Amino acid sequence: MKIPKLQLGTAIILDWTDSKSAMGWSYDPKRKRTPGYIRSIGYVVQSNDECVTITTSMDDRGASIDDFSIPVGCIKKLDILEDFNLTEG
What we know:
Blueprint: E1 11-18, E2 36-47, E3 51-55, E4 57-58, E5 64-65, E6 68-71, E7 75-80
Antiparallel strand pairs: 1-2, 1-7, 2-3, 3-6, 4-5
């Protein structure tokens, strides 16, 4: 998916896929194996051609904690939460 230009502090919802594993031995050739489907909500820390980095908390200077980067190729849907942006514009 093409990621729009995102500013620092933009509130977003991301739907994305990730690898998933099962613990222990398994043999069932008919069992359907699928990736993990994940929804994350956060504030944009950084966005580029490789990944979108979000955080759950950001102060008024743009400092963040517990940043989390999601590869662009894994992102299936991105929605901007206009009413919750930390930046204007």
